[in-house]
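Researcher: Here's a chain I'd like modeled. Treat it as a single chain, no partners, no ligands.
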Amino acid sequence: MAEIRIRNTDERISGEENVRAFLNSQEVLYEHWDASKLPQELQHKFALSDDEKNQILSTFDEEIRDLAARRGYRTWDIVALSEATPNLEELLKKFESVHTHTEDEVRAITAGRGIFIIKGTEDVGYFDVELEAGDVISVPEHKPHFFTLMENRQIVAVRLFIETEGWIAHPYEDPAFQKA
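Model: Modeled as a single isolated chain. Structure tokens:
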């Protein structure tokens, strides 16, 4: 289940309803899917074949199509990151800088853990959303954020897009942002 840490105060928010209410106040969509639907052999596998990626998409087809219909997403895929990922450090450097997009950034975590760092309202500042299998998040277009792996450095997620070529990151310089 997702947990939030507000960086300015180190306050933690947990529990599905509390997380959903906080993220809603920050204009971030949060849902939870039943990750136990995924076959056991894929619940802890982070280097995936195309067939395994398709199996994940098939397992969550109903949830994906429902979310896509409600939010206007037109295409989706699977991203899998782990120590087995070629050029993992280069990819993380690209992810680990504050940026925006011209469409939502959506992740439905199917295995592992990851974290979004998001710029909230002025009274909140930056906050971390720690995600695990079953958590679904949609960071709205133009909202400064970035995504990275947690200490286990393993994640599999469904990504949904409006634009069929995927999203493009636009750097967001913010002197108020502190990495820690």
